């Protein structure tokens, strides 16, 4: 693992601890930015899981939707857990439709 990713993972651990102590919007924003900037599947996946287990869907909605726009393949993995996140689920559904069309087109060639 390179130094860049390791740095983001260490920062993620610190931010998640901070968020569990004080689950403010500001701390959520920091977690989101770290996940997005890291471009690391493991960190992003942890963020998606956090959103999925949250009871406060309105607080996490925009963050999850933005993450899913950039990491659809990880969103697909947690699609069933995204109950209540309609926009994020729609992004995933549209990507699946797009992939099906590509597969059908390739089959016809």
Explain the overall architecture.
By secondary structure, the chain is mainly alpha-helical. It has one domain (3-108). Helices cover 82% and strands 0% of the residues. It has 6 helices and no strands. It has helices at residues 3-21, 25-38, 41-53, 57-70, 72-77, 86-108. α1 runs antiparallel to α2 (25-38). The protein is flat and about 55 Å long. The N and C termini lie far apart (40 Å).
Provide the low-confidence segments as ranges: none
Oligomeric state: single chain
Q: Count of DSSP E strands? A: 0
Shape verdict: flat
Number of helices: 6
Structural class: mainly alpha
The sequence of SSEs as H and E is HHHHHH
Tally of domains: 1
Beta-strand share of residues:
under 5%
Main sheet attributes: strand count, strand direction, barrel closure: none
Relative helix content: over 70%
What is the typical, i.e. mean, pLDDT? 92
How far do the termini sit from each other? 40 Å
Radius of gyration: 16 Å
Topology summary:
Layout: H1 3-21, H2 25-38, H3 41-53, H4 57-70, H5 72-77, H6 86-108
Helix pairs in contact: 1-2, 2-3, 2-4, 3-4, 4-6
Question: Gist?
Answer:
The protein contains 6 helices and no strands. With 109 residues, the chain is mainly alpha-helical. The protein has one domain (3-108).
Keywords:
single chain; 82% helix; 0% strand; mainly alpha; 109 residues
């Amino acid at each position: 693992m390179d130094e860049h990713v390791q740095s983001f993972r260490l920062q993620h651990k610190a931010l998640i601890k901070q968020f569990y102590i004080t689950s403010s919007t500001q701390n959520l924003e920091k977690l989101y930015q770290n996940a997005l900037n890291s471009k690391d599947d493991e960190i992003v996946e942890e963020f998606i899981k956090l959103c999925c287990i949250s009871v406060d869907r309105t607080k996490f909605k925009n963050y999850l939707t933005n993450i899913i726009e950039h990491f659809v393949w990880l969103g697909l993995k947690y699609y069933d857990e995204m109950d209540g996140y309609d926009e994020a689920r729609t992004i995933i559904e549209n990507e699946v439709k797009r992939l099906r069309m590509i597969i059908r087109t390739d089959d016809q060639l």
